[in-house]
């Protein structure tokens, strides 16, 4: 298998979906999902996707941009979907979307999206090629 096929297979394998409820304790004084909670969930989903992609130790190096298009009300269900967007030499960029749905309607739609970049570290704690010697 050549490198681009390997990347495509690993990208498919890495797709990560996490479903949660927006219950009290996760909301702000507007009774909508607290932005910091959303960011932590997004970083975690992105980290899982990136780890599944390369199976190497990773650190977050940046979050380019997060768009909060819509407030997420308390009492809704959300689904985070993390997908590998770009594979560099030692870094991986992951797109994360949060979809919101009312508990009593089939109306799931996107509310928040952002990207997170991770760097793979070798045993010396220095950046190392993301796929290195990996084969499938
Ligand atoms: C991540 C870290 C090891 C990178 O070290 P560095 O010396 O900047 O590494 P390099 O310059 O060789 O860059 C390594 C890769 O990261 C990318 N990168 C570096 N800074 C970046 C940034 N701000 N945004 C996006 N990508 C970045 C580079 O483009 C390169 O990618 P490539 O190999 O795919 O082309 C270092 O910055 C670090 O340890 N940061 C702290 C990480 C951390 O504690 N995160 C929070 C907890 S997980």
Helix/strand-derived category reads alpha+beta
Architecture per CATH nomenclature, i.e. the level-2 architecture: Roll
Residue share in helix: 10-25%
Largest sheet: 5 strands, antiparallel
Number of beta strands: 5
Q: Indicate the radius of gyration in whole angstroms.
A: 16 Å
Low-confidence stretches: none
The number of helical runs is 2
Helix-strand topology string: HEHEEEE
Instruction: Using the coordinates above, name the CATH class.
Output: Alpha Beta
Structural notes for this entry:
This protein is α+β, with helices and mostly antiparallel strands and 136 residues long. It has one domain (3-120): Roll (Thiol Ester Dehydrase, Chain A). 24% of the residues lie in helices and 39% in strands. It is built from two helices and five strands; from the N terminus they run αβαββββ. The protein has helices at residues 3-14, 35-54; strands at residues 16-21, 58-68, 76-87, 91-102, 109-120. A five-stranded antiparallel beta sheet has the order 1-3-4-5-2. Strand 4 (91-102) and strand 5 form a beta hairpin. Helix 1 crosses helix 2 (35-54). The radius of gyration is 16 Å and the shape is elongated. It starts with a helix and ends in a 16-residue tail after the last strand. 26% of the residues are buried. The mean pLDDT is 94. Residues 59-62, 88-91, 117, 119, 127 line the site of coenzyme A.
Summarize the structure in short.
The chain has 136 residues and is an alpha+beta fold.
């Amino acid at each position: 298998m050549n490198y681009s096929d390997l990347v495509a297979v690993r990208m498919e394998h890495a797709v990560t979906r996490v479903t949660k409820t927006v219950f009290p304790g996760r909301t702000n004084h507007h009774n909508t999902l607290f932005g910091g909670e959303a960011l932590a969930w997004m970083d975690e989903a992105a980290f899982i996707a990136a780890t599944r992609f390369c199976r190497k130790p990773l650190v977050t190096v940046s979050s380019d941009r997060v768009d909060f298009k819509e407030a997420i009300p308390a009492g809704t269900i959300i689904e985070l979907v993390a997908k590998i967007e770009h594979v560099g030499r030692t870094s991986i960029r992951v797109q994360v979307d949060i979809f919101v749905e009312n508990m009593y309607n089939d109306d799931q739609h996107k509310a928040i999206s952002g990207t997170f970049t991770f760097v793979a570290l070798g045993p010396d704690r220095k950046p190392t090629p993301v796929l290195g010697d990996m084969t499938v």
